[in-house]
Amino acid sequence: MEREWLFSLIPLVIGAVFLGFGVYGLRRARALRRTGVTAEGWIVRHDMRRDDEGATYHYPVAAWTARDGRECEYASRFGRGSIAGAYRVGASVVIRYDSENPRRFVIQGWDVTTVDLVFTIVGSLLTAGTSLALLVRLLTL
To answer: What are the backbone dihedrals phi and psi of residue 47, each rounded to the nearest 5 degrees, phi first?
Structure first.
């Protein structure tokens, strides 16, 4: 058997990693929807980060008071290139958070599962496609 089939492991590994990240994000979002606690919060600032190509992304930092009285202030895990008026500094937002670990939170309307869904779909396609190609390759030897 030749070694060329080893190169097909590259998209299989990439697909598995994408699938893992996507499923993790979707499960996390589902758990927050199902068992998360809702709180009224506000945007206190925006953390800005630049990527390698110079694009700037804004990550809103939300602050809220948890049910147990803890003051929480964390940056969203999603950044965008621009800020809509509803998410400017001082804006009131609805937060859904994990009461055991408030770092796990979403800003309703800002944090969407689209990225997680895209990772899941791309990972599934790469994994299934590469697995099928490997199976055909092994059966036709």
So the answer is: -80, 130
Name which of 10, 86, 18, 80 is nearest 47 in CA terms.
80
Mean pLDDT, rounded, of the chain:
90
- Model confidence over 16-63: pLDDT tens digits? 999 999 999 999 889 999 999 999 999 999 999 988 888 999 999 999
Provide DSSP, the chain.
Answer: --SGGGGGHHHHHHHHHHHHHHHHHHHHHHHHHHHPEEEEEEEEEEEEEE-TTS-EEEEEEEEEE-TTS-EEEEE-S--BSS--GGGSTT-EEEEEE-SS-TTSEEETTTS-SHHHHHHHHHHHHHHHHHHHHHHHHHHT-
Query: Residues with Cβ < 8 Å from 6, sequence gap 6 or more?
Result: none
What burial class does residue 99 get, using C-beta atoms within 10 Å of its C-beta: 0-12 exposed, 13-18 middle, 19+ buried?
A: middle
Q: Say if residues 119 and 18 touch (Cβ distance below 8 Å).
A: yes
Q: Range with the lowest mean pLDDT among 1-5, 12-16, 82-86?
A: 1-5
